[in-house]
Design brief:
The protein is of the alpha+beta class. Helices cover 32% and strands 17% of the residues. Strand 1 and strand 2 form a beta hairpin. It is globular.
């Protein structure tokens, strides 16, 4: 069996010794260095993480399998504070309610998909920083159109790619069925700076969905995950709309136009994925 078929349940069921052997085999197959495996917990859930280093990037193992993704509006039970925050935003910005319908319209639909096990960068990095050498080559060739095709080609030359939208959601939520990877509600304050939960490594050890300004590329040119580019937070849209942008399944339909037409490709983050053979 290929290690790309490793599921979360199979990974969790391994003994510590077997997990070490499996992680070491994955590292050898990718010419990466195994940094170690360890127990890890997040938001009341426990699991095991494995970290790898290759070409200056730290990766975490994200097991695969058939998984449930998207937001199921029927199971959402908003808190009194969320209802009040939404009512305030709806009044000020002319939103159409009720809350559950609004959330359903701004998140991806419920679905079951199959995703492979893979290594995923612990932190995202700006596309222009990651592909700086390619920038110089493009200039030498008289090229340099920094669009999604440029990103995909630059990553492919390194044996990498962005996550698919499904892979990104699963990497973020790690199987959590809640609106956010930690639950259905959000902490006090704004989702920016040192706030509990959002900067802590998630169940897979990833620092992900940690900043509304850092929405990330996926394999789909028009789909960005992990924020709205900071529009709600910067625009003063209030707690509900600002926190919603960090929901695991959140989608900002207009962000692609802002990134490409606004010349923001270089400074938009991407989270490299290292496929397991």
């Amino acid at each position: 069996m290929s290690h790309a078929d490793l599921t979360l349940s199979a990974w969790s069921d391994l003994s510590d010794e077997a997990a070490d052997r499996t992680a070491a085999a994955i590292a050898r197959s990718l010419d990466a260095r195994l940094a170690g495996t360890a127990p890890h917990g997040y938001a009341g859930r426990t699991g095991r993480v494995a970290f790898f280093d290759r070409d200056g990037i730290r990766y975490a193992l994200v097991p695969g399998g058939t998984v449930q993704l998207g937001h199921d509006a029927a199971r959402l039970r908003p808190s009194a504070r969320q209802l009040a925050d939404f009512a305030e935003a709806a009044d000020e910005w002319g939103l159409t309610g009720p809350l559950d319908r609004f959330v359903a319209e701004t998140t991806s639909p419920p679905r079951r998909v199959s995703v492979p096990a893979r290594l995923v960068a612990v932190r995202s990095v700006e596309a222009g920083t990651l592909l700086a050498v390619d920038d110089e080559a493009d200039l030498d060739d008289g090229e340099g159109e920094h669009d999604h095709a440029w990103l995909m080609a630059g990553l492919a030359r390194r044996g990498l790619r962005p996550p698919t939208p499904d892979e990104w959601e699963y990497a973020c939520g790690a199987g959590a069925a809640t609106l956010f990877r930690w639950g259905d509600d959000y902490p006090e304050g704004e989702p920016y700076g040192r706030v509990p939960l959002i900067q802590e490594p998630n169940l897979f050890g990833l620092v992900i969905g940690d900043d509304p300004y850092r929405s990330e590329f996926t394999t789909e040119p028009d789909v960005f995950c992990g924020g709205d580019g900071g529009s709600a937070l910067c625009g003063g849209y209030g707690s509900f709309l600002s926190w919603l942008t960090l929901a695991t399944a959140y989608r900002e339909a207009e962000l692609a136009e802002v990134v490409y037409d606004g010349g923001l490709t270089d400074e938009t983050p991407v989270r490299p994925v290292l496929p397991i053979p």
